[in-house]
Inverse folding.
């Protein structure tokens, strides 16, 4: 009967056009007359008349009127107003710094350049700034995709808020500057120094050759105090020297930090060393970042409290890898996480010195007007205490097993 016929049609058949209908008629033989055929057509087909067709268009298509289009634009687009742009700055390390955008629009440090045009679009200065930051963001994303889960942990960047920071020494010694407050724009700082594993990714992808590899040698320091443990007997022996010593070692480079007989096989999460300023700058540019200035490095390390050391104003034993740790070599960058500063930056004191982008006139008497680069933080051969305002001066092409670097980004 009709009820059974309709039930079978709804469950079993998928009649959508004339060809399918004729095929079913031939195979099933239950559709016998015009009335039944018309009844099936009404129940099963979808395309019937103009009104229904218009209704389907409204439900199925994505072509909408002006009001809906404007609503989609507001939800989906990335081009936002100034307030939204500032929020993005706080969340994304590679976005444009809000102060720079404001300066450009208001004619701040650029003497009136960077005005909004009659069309409502920014002029070339802002477009260039946006383009540069977009390129950096893409480089950062590409580098991150090439890292494993553990490497991403060592590639973390933390927000350093904008503010006035205490920098410099309260009692300046040689090369140091007088304590003062400096305004620092917000930026992001690497949680750790750059490790051997991160630098290895860079070299493998680019084929880059470091300064030490090109010159064929690097400087290797040995600490005055070192404890050695025999693996079989577990016997501990100590070595004392009257002073620090160093040698110019042929074949010393980033993957042979103490010379050809050494390796980084068990030091993947140690800071990379035997890198010059050029090596550090090249790596930073390749991942869309840069080196911090001396003021940025010190502000991030001392925090808004202006501490002398990452953990406070009193020196603490065994809080970092210096001479009294008796390691006389590098350690993993996360070896002293209990002594991070309030911004959660690690390994700021000891282990290895860190290049900054700051240059000063050379303090040494030379015939040429040479400049020197400032490094911060002390190393495993440093005699404690080493406050965060301390300065260490090196030539640009200096490479040794006590100098590494960490990166920053606006």
């Amino acid at each position: 009967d009709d009820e059974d016929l309709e039930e079978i049609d709804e469950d079993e058949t998928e009649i959508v056009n004339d060809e399918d209908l004729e095929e079913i008629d031939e195979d099933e033989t239950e559709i016998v007359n015009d009335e039944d055929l018309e009844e099936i057509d009404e129940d099963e087909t979808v395309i019937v008349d103009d009104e229904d067709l218009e209704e389907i268009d409204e439900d199925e298509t994505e072509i909408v009127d002006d009001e809906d289009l404007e609503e989609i634009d507001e939800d989906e687009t990335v081009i936002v107003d100034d307030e939204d742009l500032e929020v993005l700055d706080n969340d994304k390390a590679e976005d444009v710094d809000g102060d720079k955008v404001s300066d450009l629009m208001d004619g701040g440090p650029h003497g009136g350049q960077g005005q909004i045009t009659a069309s409502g679009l920014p002029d070339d200065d802002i477009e260039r700034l946006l383009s540069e930051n977009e390129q950096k963001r893409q480089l950062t994303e590409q580098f991150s995709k090439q890292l494993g889960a553990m490497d991403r942990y060592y590639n973390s960047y933390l927000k350093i808020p904008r503010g006035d920071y205490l920098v410099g020494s309260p009692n300046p010694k040689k090369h140091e500057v007088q304590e003062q407050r400096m305004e620092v724009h917000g930026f992001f700082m690497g949680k750790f120094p750059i490790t051997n594993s991160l630098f290895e990714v860079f070299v493998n992808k680019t084929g880059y050759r470091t300064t030490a590899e090109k010159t064929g040698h690097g400087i290797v320091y040995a600490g005055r105090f070192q404890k050695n443990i025999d693996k079989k007997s577990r016997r501990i022996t100590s070595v004392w020297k009257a002073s620090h010593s160093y040698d110019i070692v042929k074949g010393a480079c980033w993957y042979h930090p103490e010379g050809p007989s050494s390796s980084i096989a068990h030091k993947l999460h140690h800071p990379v060393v035997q890198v010059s300023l050029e090596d550090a700058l090249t790596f930073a540019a390749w991942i869309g970042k840069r080196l911090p200035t001396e003021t940025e490095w010190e502000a991030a390390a001392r925090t808004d409290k202006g501490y002398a050391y990452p953990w406070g104003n009193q020196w603490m034993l065994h809080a970092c890898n210096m001479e009294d740790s008796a390691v006389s070599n590098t350690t993993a960058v996360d070896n002293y996480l209990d002594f991070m500063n309030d911004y959660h930056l690690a390994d700021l004191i000891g282990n290895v010195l860190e290049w900054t982008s700051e240059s000063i006139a050379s303090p040494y008497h030379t015939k040429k007007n040479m400049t020197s680069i400032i490094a911060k933080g002390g190393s495993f051969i440093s005699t404690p205490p080493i406050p965060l305002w301390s300065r260490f001066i090196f030539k640009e092409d200096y490479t040794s097993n006590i100098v590494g670097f960490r990166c920053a980004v606006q």
In short: The chain is about 35% helix and 15% strand. The CA atoms of residues 337 and 346 lie 6 Å apart.
